[in-house]
Specification:
Elements lengths: L5 H19 L2 H91 L8 E8 L2 E8 L2 H12 L5 E12 L4 H6 L1 H6 L4 E11 L5 H10 L12 E4 L1
Parallel strand pairs: 3-5
Antiparallel strand pairs: 1-2, 2-4, 3-4
């Protein structure tokens, strides 16, 4: 039969607890425990701070990469915008040059076009010179007959104010044949009437398109009608 002495074990256990309490109550032990606790807290705080710093650094790097990408895109956009502005300036410069050329050619081209529209469709009716000084226009030419000159003058006169104050001077001239033909057909020329041509000079006032509309209300307000609307053009014969 086994016997166990419980008194000895209880006594030994009480002695062990007393030793532990004695060690804990020792000032050095207390300082050591406090130091270990503080060191643990410091390590834990440093770890948390390190983890937070690493996370912030990663976020800052991501934000930096994003800003750099945006900066590259903006640089590309600015470059394209600069090229587009340069092309726009070049196109605008060309447009300005074309406008200046058109404005410089508008007067003569408009005058010639307006006169050409009103020329009689006769093979022997042609113009020899057109001279413009400001608003004054002088047209010279030759015609097979005087009726064609009068018709041309009327077409200029009734042009809704484009040509005004039309004055026509005409002169009949004999058409001289070349010397070779004159010698060969001398006898035939004596029996036949010599051909004539009508040289004419037309002087009038030319108002560019768009300005005649501004002048008509002023003339109506002053009670004066344009000479072009009062009758047929004046014809002076020589």
């Amino acid at each position: 039969m086994i016997r166990i002495n419980l008194l000895d074990s209880v006594t030994d256990r009480a002695g062990g607890m007393a030793a532990v309490e004695a060690r804990v109550s020792n000032p050095r032990t207390k300082m050591l425990l406090v130091g270990l606790s503080i060191a643990g807290l410091l390590v834990l705080g440093m770890g948390l701070d390190f983890v937070s710093a690493v996370a912030k650094l990663a976020a800052a790097e991501t934000e930096q990469k994003s800003q750099q990408e945006i900066a590259r895109q903006m640089a590309a956009i600015n470059k394209e915008q600069g090229e587009l502005e340069k092309k726009t300036k070049d196109v605008q410069a060309r447009i300005d040059v074309i406008k200046r050329l058109r404005s410089s050619q508008k007067g003569p081209v408009a005058v010639l076009s307006s006169i050409n529209e009103r020329l009689p469709r006769l093979p022997e009716f042609f113009l020899t010179s057109i001279e413009q000084k400001g608003e004054e226009l002088t047209v010279m030419g030759n015609s097979p007959n005087e009726g064609a000159v009068t018709s041309f003058g009327r077409s200029l006169e009734f042009s809704n104010g484009l040509f005004a104050n039309v004055n026509i001077e005409t002169q009949r001239k004999l058409v001289e044949s070349p010397a070779a033909d004159r010698g060969a057909h001398a006898d035939a020329e004596k029996s036949q009437p010599k051909p004539e041509t009508v040289t004419f000079t037309i002087r009038c006032k030319y108002t560019p398109p768009g300005q005649e509309k501004q002048q008509q209300p002023q003339q109506q307000a002053n009670g004066a009608a344009p000479a072009a609307q009062n009758g047929t053009p004046q014809v002076a014969k020589n």
